[in-house]
């Protein structure tokens, strides 16, 4: 029997390292603050002054929670921890903005096998930077150390967010009409979906390493796979302020057709023309080295489209100009038509532009 008593540290949990991580992340969290946020980091709960909602006649709160999936393993292997937070914010806040809601605040959860203070702080730095890009506050979070369940270098992240929208400005399927235009916004790459397929293809089937230089990418495989998810929240809100928008669709797991179908009413049908854009090189490479069929790619990956806006035909020019002014690559990719006997919510037609 050991002569010394058991301790939390002996069990693998380092409280001092956790405290050090909190100190390192404070400066980054502070950068995300909005006027409605009360108090600072370190309390038991984040506080948000709800009196700010008095300006709404009927405020509806929108909430979402998500993670980043197996993309975190790419970050771990690369030893790059300050971009994965962008992915987390995008996955949460771009879901919230789909209904027209303004992102208000977010909390995060970081689970690690061992607390490396600088590493945890880097993850939070990325989350904070993402929150700034989404216009939301990071009001708190949790860092949990799970020795024995996770390896010393393993980690995972999750987040939850809240937004608000005026009830009579709620976007969705009930607003969509025949003749509406489907505007696509370009993705920055794979974003944060389909990495189980991608990792299987490039690592297990092709045997590639993360430091492999890929000519089609103009950089290494790891750098391409770690490209942060684009955050569209403020771009979408800008559209709602400058012109009429009927619906948004965040293109995540399930691909473009499946996610667009979620906001199309039963009596209508969305048709998207593949020939209006050329997916980025990463999609061709994944499909080529893995022998993945096009339909499998399309139901797993975003194929170059990260967000969809459905707008009246009369709003197209203003919408495209607004997005161009904000540096967002966007184009008319399809239209809304009456649903035929055999049609479903959304469908792809044609072949991709070359």
Automatic annotation (TrEMBL):
Chief place of localization: cytoplasm
Keyword Ribosomal protein: no
Subcellular location(s) of the protein: Cytoplasm
Pathway where this protein functions: Purine metabolism; IMP biosynthesis via de novo pathway; 5-amino-1-(5-phospho-D-ribosyl)imidazole from N(2)-formyl-N(1)-(5-phospho-D-ribosyl)glycinamide: step 2/2
Reaction equation(s) it catalyzes: 2-formamido-N(1)-(5-O-phospho-beta-D-ribosyl)acetamidine + ATP = 5-amino-1-(5-phospho-beta-D-ribosyl)imidazole + ADP + phosphate + H(+)
Domain PurM-like N-terminal: 57-165
Domain PurM-like C-terminal: 178-342
Enzyme class: ligase
Molecular functions (GO terms): phosphoribosylformylglycinamidine cyclo-ligase activity
Record's keyword terms, sorted: ATP-binding, Cytoplasm, Ligase, Nucleotide-binding, Purine biosynthesis
A Pfam cross-reference name: AIRS
Entry's EC annotation: 6.3.3.1
Family affiliation: Belongs to the AIR synthase family.
Name recorded for this polypeptide: Phosphoribosylformylglycinamidine cyclo-ligase
